[in-house]
């Protein structure tokens, strides 16, 4: 699909030895991961308990440090059972610990949970909006390498940004809804 955005013929195998295959192999994973990190894709959203770090390498301004989930493309919120309803307002920070060569999540929540976008490998699970966005991002990344036209890459990047906005709009219906409350007075006037 990405090659078709560039006006090129499709490939039949990622084992072929031609410029299209090499470009796809070079840009596929970084482009996919970038699209995962752009948005809380409902099909790839995970909520799970974090694993605490129990060593001396704690970040000074935070009470707790947790292991960054291996397959997380982006951590969106950190919370505990008492703050689940306000999880988007909870403060946290992702930092890299040089001494331990790892990313960690810092928080003031004990027994913390995280909501994050998982890097799904099974393409059968991908949402159609994700597929379109991913193909546009991949095409934009490969444009200069394959057709030597930076402007085509810029145009595809703009189209990609639009597709992400549309995906956010349409996928919003799968997000948790908090029912609106109406007063008994309003209901009785019905």
Ends distance:
52 Å
**Major sheet attributes:** 3 strands, antiparallel
SSE order: HHEEEEEEHHH
The strand line-up of the biggest sheet is 1-6-3
List low-pLDDT spans.
none
Structural class: alpha+beta
Radius of gyration: 21 Å
- Silhouette: elongated
Short description:
The chain has helices spanning 2-5, 19-38, 128-147, 150-171, 184-189, and strands at residues 45-49, 64-67, 72-79, 92-97, 102-107, 113-118. With 190 residues, it is of the alpha+beta class.
Main attributes of the structure:
5 helices, 190 residues, 3-stranded antiparallel beta sheet, elongated, alpha+beta, single chain
Give a written overview of the molecule.
The chain contains 5 helices and 6 strands, in the order ααββββββααα. With 190 residues, the chain is α+β, with helices and mostly antiparallel strands. Strands 1-6-3 form a 3-stranded antiparallel beta sheet, covered by helices on one side. It has a 3-stranded antiparallel beta sheet with strand order 2-5-4, with no helix packed on it. A hairpin with a 4-residue loop joins strand 4 and strand 5. Helix 2 packs across helix 3 and helix 3 packs antiparallel against helix 4. The protein starts with a helix and ends with a helix. The relative contact order is 0.18.
């Amino acid at each position: 699909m990405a090659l078709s955005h560039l006006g090129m013929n499709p490939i039949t195998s990622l084992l072929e030895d031609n410029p299209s295959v090499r470009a796809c192999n070079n840009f596929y994973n970084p482009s996919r991961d970038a699209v995962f990190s752009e948005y809380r894709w409902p099909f790839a959203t995970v909520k799970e308990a974090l694993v605490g770090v129990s060593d001396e390498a704690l970040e000074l301004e935070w009470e707790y440090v947790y292991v960054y989930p291996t397959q997380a493309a982006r951590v969106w919120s950190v919370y505990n059972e008492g703050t689940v309803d306000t999880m988007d307002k909870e403060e946290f920070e992702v930092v890299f610990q040089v001494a331990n060569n790892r990313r960690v999540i810092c928080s003031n929540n004990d027994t913390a949970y995280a909501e994050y976008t998982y890097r799904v490998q099974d393409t059968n699970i991908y949402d159609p909006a994700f597929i379109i966005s991913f193909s546009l991002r991949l095409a934009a990344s490969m444009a200069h390498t394959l057709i030597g036209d930076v402007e085509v890459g810029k145009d595809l990047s703009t189209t990609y940004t639009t597709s992400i906005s549309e995906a956010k709009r349409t996928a919003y219906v799968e997000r948790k809804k908090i029912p609106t409350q109406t007063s008994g007075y309003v209901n009785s006037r019905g």
